[in-house]
């Protein structure tokens, strides 16, 4: 079994690198400042005070989707903040400055990059902007636990353009607030917290492993009865098992 950070199902050469039946996805390791010192580093802004509809703070890396976003930012600088508009490179930004830019939009765009994963998706939850996934084959952690439709948007990477901005602009603030609120409930799953923490990335990993065991009918934790039903040692049917964290 391989544990990979959140990312695309393919590697740099577009070759399948993830096997759903045996592998699990784990969150990337976020800057501790985002999770332990939020009040001074990344206190979220009210939606009414955010300058931009969306932002993309990343390099082009020769990727089509990223190049489209940078061009879109040039066309609509009042709606989309992109890195080449105000500063020549992210290397010149401190982490605090980066977070300040990130929090100044309602939506944080997360396209496919050079590697198969990105921290931007996770960071967006701590600055409380809604992540918009622009990576068609993205594989996200804990998909059996989290309903991503309640906390994020996934948009076709081949449709990056003015239509994307029009769609995001059409979403009422109350819907954005609802998604942000749901995101607050699950973002603890991105944090590699101490063992005693009630919610952490390690807990999510154990949930995923537990589900893998339940789905493998020949495991030592799987039993079956005369009527064809599969149960665990507590006589709970697999079909009745529910993920421990569900959003309303």
Describe the structure.
With 248 residues, the chain is an alpha/beta fold. The protein folds into two domains: 3-190, Rossmann fold, CATH 3.40.50; 201-240, no CATH class. The chain has nine helices and eleven strands. It has helices at 32-36, 38-41, 64-75, 83-86, 95-102, 120-127, 162-170, 173-186, 201-215; strands spanning 3-5, 7-8, 24-26, 52-55, 80-81, 105-111, 130-134, 138-139, 153-154, 223-224, 230-231. The protein has a five-stranded parallel sheet, with helices on both faces. The chain starts with a strand and ends in a 17-residue tail after the last strand. Residues 1-6 have low confidence and may be disordered.
Short description:
The chain has helices at residues 32-36, 38-41, 64-75, 83-86, 95-102, 120-127, 162-170, 173-186, 201-215, and strands at 3-5, 7-8, 24-26, 52-55, 80-81, 105-111, 130-134, 138-139, 153-154, 223-224, 230-231.
CATH superfamily of the largest domain: Glycogen Phosphorylase B
Largest sheet: 5 strands, parallel
Average pLDDT score: 80
Q: Compute the separation of the termini in Å.
A: 32 Å
Counting DSSP E segments of at least 2 residues, the number of strands comes to 11
The poorly predicted ranges are: 1-6
SSE arrangement, N to C? EEEHHEHEHHEHEEEHHHEE
Shape label: elongated
CATH architecture descriptor name of the largest domain: 3-Layer(aba) Sandwich
Task: Kindly provide the radius of gyration, computed on alpha-carbon positions and rounded to a whole number of angstroms.
Answer: 20 Å
Q: Please write the CATH class name of the largest domain.
A: Alpha Beta
Percent helix: 25-40%
GO molecular function, one term: glycosyltransferase activity
Subcellular location: Golgi apparatus membrane
Main location: Golgi
Membrane topology: Single-pass type II membrane protein
